[in-house]
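Posted in: Protein Modeling Q&A

I'm a second-year student putting together a small comparison for a lab meeting, and my supervisor asked me to include a predicted structure for S-adenosyl-L-methionine-dependent methyltransferase. I've never done this before, so apologies if this is the wrong subforum. The sequence is pasted below exactly as I got it from our records. If anyone can share the structure token output, I'd also love a short note on what stands out.
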Amino acid sequence: MDDSSQKSVPMSVYQLPVDITERNRLSLQHRLWCAFFGGLHPRLLHDAIDGRNMAAGGSFEVIDVGCGSGIWALEMAKAHPHAQIIGVDLVVDTTLSLPSNVQLRQQDIVQEGLPPAESGYDIIHARCFTGYLKDPTAFVQAAYVALKPGGLLVLADAFKPCWDDQSEPIPLLPNRGAESAPPPTGSWWAGWIYFWHQISYTHYQTVATLIEEHPGLSHVHRERYYAPMHRSCDKEREELGHISNSITLGFCRGGVDAFVASGEFTRSEVEQWIELIEAELETKPIYMMWDIAWGVKA
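Accepted answer (user: helix_wrangler)
Welcome! Here is the predicted structure, written out as tokens:
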């Protein structure tokens, strides 16, 4: 992809790059979700989508909000060739070769709203998206309005780190006196996530909470997955560990400018912080929790 053709996005709106490196990271993150699910969706969601497909007579409308690299929309279109798939994001890859049932639209849905569907959407999918919103409940309401009766709203996002016993690490940040003798339960990665929530995910709510608290959504289901982030994980989860490790370090490197712009840390401090995280992931049994939740419009 020629990044020079892409518009810039203000850091106040989105704190990560919108370049090809970030798109590659998002595609790798898609592999992580598929490894969790054993396919494009968890089994129960797969069954619900098939049911929706049958109810729609084989032709249904799907929108992927915050579509990133576009990979989910493309794979969804391949799995359901009679569905019409729209992917929307602040920046989209205009060089992709798209099948006839996929459109990618460059659009700010916060400012412009969701693209209209003639009779509503059968599925609205948003992954690693609601955390960036100042009012995620407003998005859920807008999605609810845009759904057909019986349509599915699917939200997914990362949650937080934990140790292998599911206890929470103590967040460690630079220049807080922990570099020379960090506490045994301290984590530089947990510190990174803590600070990310201070500057980016400032109005974060779990995807399960967003789905469960909307009064118009029923048949709510939620699932949580644990991805090892350390390279020394057991053989059975080795691929998950490798993918998660790569995603994490790419995420950190992509966030350097945002951390520096906060005024809390120098670039040198942030880069050293990433080195501490990389060393931590080599040895410590740390995991990241990832959540998916969905509900049906009554």
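A couple of things worth pointing out for your meeting: The domain at 3-297 is CATH 3.40.50.150 (Rossmann fold). The chain is about 40% helix and 25% strand.
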